[in-house]
């Protein structure tokens, strides 16, 4: 009898375990481009040239419809890392794949080798940044801008009684909400020595 009960218990645990596993959230799906990365092409494009890319990075807070209003106040990317990638055939494959398949539970990554071929700089207090010694070619700029907003709410703090009955008291409480926005832009240096200005937003 004991053997039968143990067997049935084990079977129940296994079945319920499968049920819980099926009900749980699915792990995110990670995709990579099925395209061979050519390090020689990327290395050649990142060699030193005579061009300059000057930019300013900023974003705007979205409204309730998920749109950034044109007249909304700019949020400048202060002391923020700016990443530059050379636009190679592999990069094009990654970008197109990300546009088509990236979602809430799906991420499209480039290979570790491809990610190593990049340049980085940082913005100043007003979102300005510069990449110098750039060769003619197409490049992709990316940054993650973080900021916070302050909100207030009335919090119940107690009650009191007087000749008119009960009175509830509230105090104003404030809290911060963190936000982040991925901003990206393509830029092209068309000729040697050119100074290209770009708004990254």
From TrEMBL:
Top-rank taxon: Bacteria
Span of the signal peptide: 1-21
UniProt name for this protein: Carboxypeptidase regulatory-like domain-containing protein
Keyword Signal recorded: yes
This protein's UniProt keywords: Signal
């Amino acid at each position: 009898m004991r053997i039968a009960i143990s067997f049935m218990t084990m079977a129940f645990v296994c079945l319920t375990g499968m049920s819980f596993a099926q009900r749980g959230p699915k792990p995110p799906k990670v995709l990579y481009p099925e395209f061979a990365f050519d390090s020689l092409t990327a290395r050649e494009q990142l060699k030193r040239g005579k061009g300059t890319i000057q930019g300013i990075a900023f974003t705007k807070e979205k409204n309730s419809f998920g749109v950034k209003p044109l007249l909304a106040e700019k949020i400048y990317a202060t002391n923020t890392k700016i990443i530059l990638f050379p636009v190679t055939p592999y990069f094009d494959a990654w970008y197109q794949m990300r546009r088509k398949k990236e979602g809430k539970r799906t991420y499209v990554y480039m290979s570790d080798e491809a990610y190593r071929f990049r340049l980085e700089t940082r913005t100043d207090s007003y979102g300005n940044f510069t990449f110098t010694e750039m060769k003619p070619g197409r490049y992709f700029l990316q940054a993650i801008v973080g900021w916070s907003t302050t909100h207030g709410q009335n919090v119940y703090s107690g009650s009191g009684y007087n000749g008119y009955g009960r009175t509830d008291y509230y105090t104003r409480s404030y809290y911060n909400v963190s936000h982040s926005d991925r901003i990206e832009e393509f830029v092209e240096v068309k000729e040697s020595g050119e100074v290209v200005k770009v708004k990254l937003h």
